[in-house]
Write a structure and sequence with these properties.
One of its GO terms (molecular function) is D-xylulokinase activity. By secondary structure, the chain is α/β, with parallel strands linked by helices. Helices cover about 40% and strands about 15% of the residues. The chain has a domain of about 190 residues: Nucleotidyltransferase, domain 5.
Length: about 550
């Protein structure tokens, strides 16, 4: 016991020294429902954290977050992290080895020549860009999903929106925050690849497609070159600037954090998910589950055909990735858990939300393997993969189905994976090689449940590591640490994959679950029912109106 206490004290002293000397990295991620800050030590070990809950708003039919909410949330998360450091280690850091910013990919933040926001931030969740996507995809010979930044810009041009002539630069949420912190308008290549297609041979935007966009946009009276509007593109480890005095004040009004801290290239949540699961090499992939759910598979070769179900993006190092992105993830599962929590409170047995969610999730393991004839759709918003322009969360069943808590829970988990499974089957048809699929996100904190059912949905082994619940804030902190590993401001000596394998994941423990035969057969039966029942979801979208936008924006 004494030896164990001595080891603990020695480890604590080592962390305190690393914090005091600035041998740490700070990652900040702006997710759909939470802004998280994570401080890591020299080996990527999480040392402290902070968070801030926030929600998107539906304003005039547009899913958005205000810029005021962005900065209020960032300050709150950083303040909580600094307080956590002080409580645990008795020191308050004034400097950090490097900082990284990550956020939801895609969307549309457009600014004028005075750097003023022209229209409210349009997030990835908006699906109003169908005409733009339908025109650009065949023009480029490259799938341009509805949520991509170039689709939003082109749709605004097609709609002759009043702000379009004033656009001088366009960026993502991570790019915006990084710009305000450093003064540099750049993006990590992974995040940039969700704005406009990347040429993996050059590591920059595809020049042929840039020229094609300019030509077609000019036909609609748009006189600027899109290359002049987009952020610069940087690979992982590159010099992306340093925290300015103004940026330090935005993050930490108390003045604890000092200017001059280097920043790594800002990245999207897809890139940080790849880093957090050590899946940046060809034939590796990962699934990230949150408000949305998506799978990333690093390709050995380009795909044979263009598929509307698949995005082609890149790793933070610029390697080609096939992305199956579903707008709807675990939110509906969480909503039902909240209902059961309210029921427990009504019985006089209140429980913590996390405990309720875990109990609900665990009960899914006892449900019928095929969902017992139950059917659910988790569509809070539109879902392009299945052709839904809007969403209506839906639960239905036949009179002879088995309605139990366990089977209901399993159906809700299956629903969270349903659209993803449809997209992954397209990859299988392309004969894409995959050696390992890693999973991360809050669903996977409860050991052995979502992981097991995801293995059935994918028909492949699923690995979960000890960092599965850390998510993107930890992933961007690791990218910041990778930037800090560069000597004298140059690029790091190791490539990103080698760095992750030797410095971060060398001793990482993985729990790998193979698909269970009964689960696999059960999910296959469920997916057939799910595919056939999409007509019900379409009818619900057509017939059930949402509340008016004023009510929606007050949520």
């Amino acid at each position: 016991m004494v030896e164990r206490q001595d080891e603990g004290a020695e480890r604590l002293a080592g962390y305190r020294e690393a914090i005091d000397q600035g041998r740490t990295a700070l990652g900040i991620e702006l997710g759909s429902t939470r802004i998280k800050a994570c401080l890591v030590g020299p080996g990527g070990e999480p040392l402290a954290g902070g968070s801030h809950d926030w929600e998107n708003q539906l304003v005039d039919g547009v899913w958005t977050y205000s810029l005021e909410a962005v900065w209020a949330g960032l300050r709150d998360a950083v303040a909580e992290l600094l307080g956590d450091v002080e409580r645990q280690y008795g020191v308050r850091p004034t400097t950090i080895g490097a900082i990284g910013v990550s956020a939801m990919m895609h969307g549309y933040l457009a600014f004028d020549e005075a750097d003023e926001l022209l229209v409210p931030f349009r997030t990835w969740r908006n699906t109003t860009t169908e005409r733009a996507s339908a025109e650009l995809s065949p023009l480029f010979g490259h799938n341009i999903p509805l949520r991509w930044s170039v689709a939003h810009l082109y749709q605004a041009i097609l709609d002759e929106e009043a702000h379009v002539p004033s656009v001088r630069h366009v960026t993502t949420l991570a790019g915006y925050v990084h710009w305000r912190l450093t003064g540099r308008q750049v993006l990590g290549v992974g995040d940039a690849s969700g704005m406009f297609p990347i040429d993996v041979a050059t590591g920059g935007y595809d020049r042929r497609m840039l020229a094609q966009f300019d030509e077609v946009a000019s036909g609609h009276g748009f006189g600027r070159s899109i290359a002049d509007l987009l952020p610069g593109v940087l690979p992982a480890g590159a010099d992306a600037g340093a925290l300015t005095a103004e940026g330090a004040a935005l993050l930490d009004p108390t003045g604890t954090l000092q200017a001059g801290i280097p920043l790594c290239p800002p990245e999207g949540d897809a890139g940080t998910g790849m880093v957090a699961t050590n899946s940046v090499a060809p034939r590796t992939g990962n699934v990230s589950a949150g408000t949305s759910i998506f799978a990333m598979v690093v390709l050995e070769r380009p795909l044979e055909r263009v598929h509307h179900e698949l995005d082609l993006v890149t790793t933070p190092s610029g390697d080609l990735v096939a992305m199956v992105h579903c707008n709807n993830g675990a939110s509906e599962l969480g909503a039902w858990a909240e209902v059961f929590g309210q029921f427990a409170s009504a019985l006089g047995q209140p429980a913590e939300p996390g405990a309720v969610f875990e109990a609900f999730l665990r009960s899914a393991l006892d449900g019928d393997a095929d969902g017992g004839g139950l059917l659910a759709y988790n569509y809070l918003s539109g879902e392009p993969i299945t052709g839904l322009e809007a969403g209506r969360p839906l639960f239905t069943r036949t009179p002879d189905s088995r309605l139990t808590l366990a089977t209901f829970a399993r159906t809700q988990v299956y629903s969270a994976f349903g659209t993803l499974a449809l997209g992954m089957r397209v990859l299988a048809q392309e004969q894409v090689g995959l050696d390992a699929m890693f999973a991360h996100g809050g669903m996977f904190k409860t050991a052995g449940v979502a992981q097991r059912l995801l293995a059935a949905a994918l028909g492949a082994p699923v690995a979960v590591g000890t960092t599965a619940g850390e998510g993107g804030a930890w992933g961007i902190a690791v990218l910041a640490a990778y930037r800090a590993s560069a000597a004298g401001g140059a690029t790091p000596a190791q490539d990103l994959g080698t760095y992750l394998g030797t410095e971060i994941f060398a001793d990482a423990a993985l729990d790998v679950v193979e698909p269970d035969a009964d689960d696999l057969a059960g999910f296959t039966a469920f997916l057939e029912r799910y595919s056939a029942g999409l007509a019900i979801e379409r009818a619900a979208v057509a017939e059930l109106r949402t509340r008016d936008t004023t009510q929606e924006s007050d949520r």
